[in-house]
Amino acid sequence: MNFDFSPVWDGWRALAQGTGITVAITATALLVGCSVGLLVGIGRLNPRRRLLHGVCTAYVAAFRGTPLLVQLFIWFFGLPHFGIMLPAFFCGVIGLGLYSGAYVSEIVRGAIQSIAHGQTMAAQSLGMTPAQAMRHIILPQAVVRMIPPLGNEFIALIKNSALVSLLTIHDLMHEGQKIISVSYRSFEVYLAIAVVYFCLTGVVTLALRHAEQRLGAGGLR
Question: Which domains, from first to last, does the chain contain?
Answer without folding.
Answer: 24-170 (1.10.3720.10)
